[in-house]
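Issue 218. Parser rejects a valid record. Input:
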Amino acid sequence: MQRAAAPRRSPPRPMRKLTQGNEAVFRGAVAAGASYYAGYPISPSTEILNVASGWAAQHPEFRFLQAEDEIASANAIIGASLAGAKSFTATSGPGFSLMQEAVGYAQKVGVPCVFVNVQRVGPATGMPTMPGQGDIMQVRYGSTGDYSPLAFYPNGVEEAFRVTVQAFNAAEESLSPVVVLSDTFVAHLNEVVDLEEAASGVEIAPRTLVPLGQHEIGKPRFFAGVLMYEHGPNAGEPATADADEYVRQYYAAKHRHAEVAKRYALYEHGWNVDAKVLIVCYGIVSRVASPLAPDYALFRPIRIHPLLADELAAIADRYDQIVCIEANDGQYADMVELTLRREVKRVPLLGGRISLEAVRDGLGRVLGGGPSEPPIPPAPSEAVERSPLGIG
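Output the parser choked on:
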C-alpha cells in the first residue's frame, strides 16, 4: 500500500510588524538573554519599562522591578548581574545623571550590564518630550575617575534591535556597563520590520562571570568601591595607598575594553563618498539629513565610545572640509577635531529643532565662512505661536 506524499510545507512567512524603536530595544535585550529589568518611568524611555512589565507578567522567568527612582534602578541591575542575570535599565538625561555613581561603581568592580539612555533636551528637566543628543560627553566622563566606557547609538528600529544585542555582548566580553544611546525620535520611530528574522542571525555572548552564590574556593572576589588587592598574599586587604596596584587594575580594564571595542567598530561611510565635504552625524540626525546624500559624504558612527579614531583617520584626508551636525553644541565634533587635528565645522541643532531646514541653514552658514552659532531670534514682546519643532 502506497502512502500519499506528505504535502510540501511552504516556507515560513515573514513576520513584518510595525514596531517602535523603544520596543525594538527591549526585544533586542531579550534576544541577548536579558532576564532582569529595573527602571523608573521618564519620558521618552517609558515605553521600555511598560513593555518590560507586560513581558514579565507573561514570562515568570523574566524579573521586573519598577524602582522608587533611577538610583535604585541602577543599583538593582548591578546586583542582579552579580547574582547571575543579564540585566538592564532605561532612562533619559536627568535619570542618567542620577545613575552616574552606580555607573562608576560598575566600571570599578567589572559588572556586565546595559544602560539605555533615550536623550531629550537638557540640562536638568529641560524639554522633556523634545529630542536631543546632549549626553555624548556625559557617557564618557559622567562618573568620577578614569574609565573607558563603550557606547552605541542606532538610527532606526531594526538597528536598535541589533545594536542592543551587540551592547549586551560587549558588556559580557568587557565585564563592564555598556550604554545604548537613543533619542526621542529614534525611540518613537515606527517602522515595519521583521525582528524574528533579525534575531535568527545574531550571536549571543554567554555569561562567564560566576554568580556570587557560586563562589569558588580559593578564588576570592571583592566588590568594594575602594581599591583592594584582588590577588596574591594581600588579597582582600585595602590598597588605597598603593599606586602600583591602581595602575595594574586600571590598565587591565582599559586594555580589555579596547580589545572588545575593536570587535564592534560599527559605522557607516556612504552617501556621495567622492564629494568634497564629509558630514559627520549620528542617531536621528543622520536620518533627517539623508536628503543631502547626492552632494555630501557621510560618516555615521554607531559605536560612539571609544571614538572610531582609526576609521575616521582612514577617510578624512580625502575631504576638503568636515562638518559635524549634531543636536548639541559640538560634543562629538570636539572629539573628532582633537583626534584628526584639523578643523571640524559644527552645525548645532538645539532646542529640539532637528529638521532638514535647520540642517540646510547651518550647512550654508558654516560652509560660507559663517559661525556655527545660529542667528539668535529676538525675544517676543507679546504672545506668539510656538517655534517650529520636529522633523520637516
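Fixed in the parser; the record now loads. The longest helix spans residues 243-262.
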